[in-house]
Amino acid sequence: MSMAAGLSHPDPVPCPVCGKAQTEPFLSVERRDYWQCPTCETRFLAPAQRPSRGDEYAHYLHHENDPDESRYRRFLSKLADPLLARLAPGSRGLDYGCGPGPALAAMLREAGHSVALYDPFFAPDPAPLRESYDFVTCTEVAEHFHDPRAEFARLRGLVRPGGWLALMTCFQTDDARFARWHYRTDPTHVVFYREATLRYLAREWGWLCEVPVKDVALMQRPPAGGRS
């Protein structure tokens, strides 16, 4: 394990989140090279080392996301509870990256909201992406984005004025523990965000950003007439 030295892909690449070109070598571990962005504080895997689509899909088939499993529901409630506290009755939303077992969508529907589904592997119908919503959820998905800048632009466009983009991903906090961090060792996790990263994006968009609990960011688009 080393910092900077030993990178098999030593040429800088633009930050995949904010697009800035001044990225820096961060860490090389287990033949995987990571970079960091001093602007938005993202850490990310070298693009050439991202898994193939087929390898991603094979890995996702081993995820256990049972919509009826109580422990999984408690995990998702970290996002669901603060989001529900901010939604008007009967809001319309999209679960982006819902996976094979859309538990969060089920929880939000039980609370009286309508929820459409989209997932590039498990719910690939693009029709929901042509709509706009009072809220869009993205739970344990953003760390898989191969082109997060484009994905965030899409998510931003799906939210109506005054609506919410609700994100959950394990915030990266400790560089010294990055090599042994369980989130890094998942082969499909290629981008790692800090709370500061999401606050940076919100500022760039002119959106509000709240972090009600660790690993959850609620980003609100300004009402009609405001900057968006």
Describe this structure in words.
- The chain is of the alpha/beta class and 228 residues long.
- It has a single domain (24-220), classed as Rossmann fold, CATH 3.40.50.
- It contains six helices and ten strands, in the order βββααβαββαβαβαββ.
- The protein has helices at residues 53-60, 70-84, 103-110, 148-158, 182-185, 195-205, and strands at 24-29, 32-36, 43-45, 92-96, 114-118, 133-139, 159-168, 191-192, 208-210, 216-220.
- The strands form two sheets. It has a six-stranded mixed β-sheet, with helices on both faces.
- α2 crosses α3.
- 35% of the residues are buried.
Alpha-beta classification: alpha/beta
CATH superfamily: Vaccinia Virus protein VP39
User: How many β-strand stretches?
Assistant: 10
Distance between the ends: 42 Å
Mean residue pLDDT: 93
How many separate helices? Answer: 6
Strand line-up of the largest beta sheet:
5-4-6-7-10-9
In the CATH scheme, the class would be Alpha Beta
Uncertain regions spanning at least 5 consecutive residues: 1-5
Strand content: 15-25%
Query: Which CATH-level-2 architecture?
Result: 3-Layer(aba) Sandwich
Q: Percent of residues in helical segments?
A: 25-40%
Radius of gyration: 18 Å
Shape: globular
Major β-sheet, in short?
6 strands, mixed
Total domain modules = 1
Element-level helix/strand string: EEEHHEHEEHEHEHEE
